[in-house]
Amino acid sequence: MVCLVLAPTLSSCIEDQDFDQYDALALEPVMEASILYVEAPERIINLVTGGTNFFSQDFNFDAFSSNIFSERVIEGTVTYEVDNTTSKELEITVQFLDAGDNVLDTEMFTVQPATTPTLEREIFYGPGGRSIDIVRNTSSFRVSALNLGDNTSTSSLPDPMVTLKSSGKFRVRVK
């Protein structure tokens, strides 16, 4: 008698399993990391005369061009912060370069002398923004900085320098 009562109860609790749900699953985590950090003290800026770059350097950055990232990135944002505590007006240029040193994208910053707030800028890559192919094909960055002011003044702030920081936040398709 107990078997007759339990049999319908057990079968009514069992649901057919749908193992095709995996195919409909979309895994798209957001990855965030620092990209660049560059600083130059005002004393170094004052050493260069004649309106030339006081700083110019290429930085290898294979994280974007690695297949695991470049084939899966969907969209993202690069965020820049520029802080200038020097007495100089400065122009800073960041270029995205491919493996052949071809310029894929350029971002320029004109920064006023000290006591100005930190300059912040977000650049979106992907649908509705700049091409995500720029990010996919970037293998290095070129950063250059030009003194638009004089070579003699010195900021009254302690340890005057210009600092450029950037970070990226990207959504990638895992599956």
Q: Quote the average pLDDT.
A: 87
Number of helices: 5
Output the CATH class name: Mainly Beta
| Structural class determined from secondary elements | alpha+beta
The ordered H/E elements are HHEHEHEEEEHEE
Percentage of residues in DSSP E strands: 35-45%
- The total beta strand count reads 8
The coarse overall form would be elongated
Quickly count the domains. Answer: 1
| Strands side by side in the biggest sheet | 1-8-3-6
Describe this structure in words.
By secondary structure, the chain is an alpha+beta fold. The protein has a single domain, classed as Jelly Rolls (Sandwich). 18% of the residues lie in helices and 43% in strands. The protein has a 4-stranded antiparallel beta sheet. A 4-stranded antiparallel beta sheet has the order 2-7-4-5. The model has no long low-confidence stretch (mean pLDDT 87).
Short description:
The protein is α+β, with helices and mostly antiparallel strands and 175 residues long.
